[in-house]
Amino acid sequence: MSTNLIWGAVLIYLVVAVVVAYLSRGEATNGKGVDMSGYFLGNRQMNGFVSALSYSATTYSAFMMVGLAGLTYAGGVGAFGFEIVYFAGVSLVAIFGPRFWAVGKRFGFVTPSEMLGHRYGNGKVAVATAVASCVFLIPYAAVQLAGVGYLLAGMSGGAISFTTGVIVSTLLAILFSYIAGIRSVMWTDSLQALFMIVASTLVALLVVHSLGGFSELFDTLASEHPASLSVPGPGLFSFTTFLGLTIPWFFFSLSNPQVSQRLFMPSSLKSMRQMLIGFLIFGFIYTVVSVLWGFSALVAFPDLAKSDLATPTLLASEHVPPVLGVIVMVGILAAAVSTIDSIMLTLSSMLSRDVYANVVIDASESRQLKVGKWVLPIIAILAFLFAELQLNLIAVLSVAASTGLVVIVPAIIGAFYWQRGTAVGALASIVGGGLVVIYLYLSGVKPLGLPAGIWALPVAVVLFVAVSLVTRANRERADEFMETARRR
Amino acid sequence: MNSRRWIWLVWALVLSCYVVPYGLLGQVQAWYGSCLFWFVVGVLVIVANIMITQGF
């Protein structure tokens, strides 16, 4: 694929996205009296349609069209099942969304970690949650950046270097976050979400058509790759592997702060409903398209050395005209950038609100905001360096991200449903659970032959409950918090 | 059906995602096996969420 065509497409995408970001500037994020809630939450006034598209673009990264398609190529229909279990887990938004929204509005929370610190009456819980989120999400963002680097290098046949791709995506993420905080992130997310879904769906349908249509595609799969249509399939999705992958991802909507922070933002519960339903429709289509993409690659190119090559190979093949191939490539770039900028913005709000404000007593709103804006490029540079260095530890932490963050879930559920939960219990589950996950991934140890993804949540639950039962709960704070969540 | 029952339906669907493809449909190697099953689960999850959030 020609380098000029790739750069031309990236340039058009950049210009349109920057224009949208500038148009998104408003009083809430760029006015004189802008505060933390304005810059990071859009003053809790986001409408349902933009929230739905932005939630979709933030959730679905480059993993879908590259990783999930590759998983389908290597492991068959089990990849679809894995993604559907995650998809069903988003139903947790229907249960916890109104509760997050109500307590956020009543107590003025900006971050999910601030909410936990308040509920358990101890700032250390907020600090631990923020630090744990950084430990797992900065490497995750770095891997997204590296993904863009590999994609541009692969598509251009090496004419665009890996480093150039990483620099381009880092600068885009900083730009979209900086122009108008959450408003520019959400509006550019919306543009990117529309681009992702339209481009990938059209090209997937085109590829399926060029392979003889749906019935021909599935007939070929059934005759030449029958194992790919059942589980455990070719062997990748044994039951324990499936369980280890799906348990952490089922809780993604609660455990990942870049999406749980979105529950504070809708202007009303009606907007939250639009956000959830809009996301589910988008997510279902995008999931089916990504799986079809993997199956198409399996039929067209059954002997690839690595499953991660499924998407790049298909994009560069005669099944996809070069112009459409480059459009899908930009769609994948958009998917990565829209995830990275949201992670950066959320982590910077957590570091300023939960770490800085807990260390420096009486830090004013404007001071916190200033720190948040300073921290943002530092997080971006860290992610860039991690992507460039390709350290083994970073790869381990990024793979462990969903498992590592699931240890926050017991403290979140306990905040709303268990009056007896304590700050020490929450700290034990987040810090202890997080360390157990890191140890299991680094050592490769599988107790009882089960992967870390299965152990993380039970370990965190046991720590949270056991330690809470032997320590004193802040009953007054718990009653006030839970009553607010119930009333909503 | 009130929202609580729809929430229970979602939990049942999640459980079925493990039990049905690895049990009942384990030997069905065609589009109408696990592929169709998970597709239907996805559609039902959307319907359930529409019903659960009606009160929003």
From TrEMBL, chain A:
InterPro entries: Na/Glc_symporter_sf, Na/solute_symporter, Sodium:Solute_Symporter. CDD domains: SLC5sbd. The keyword Iron does not apply. PROSITE patterns: NA_SOLUT_SYMP_3. It is a multi-pass membrane protein. It is found in: Cell membrane. It comes from the Bacteria. It catalyses: L-proline(in) + Na(+)(in) = L-proline(out) + Na(+)(out). The keyword Metal-binding does not apply. Keywords: Cell membrane, Ion transport, Membrane, Sodium, Sodium transport, Symport, Transmembrane, Transmembrane helix, Transport. Coiled coil: none annotated. The chain crosses the membrane at residues 6-25, 46-72, 84-104, 125-153, 159-181, 193-215, 235-254, 275-301, 321-343, 371-387, 393-417, 424-442, 448-470. Belongs to the sodium:solute symporter (SSF) (TC 2.A.21) family. This is Sodium:solute symporter family protein. It comes from Salinicola lusitanus.
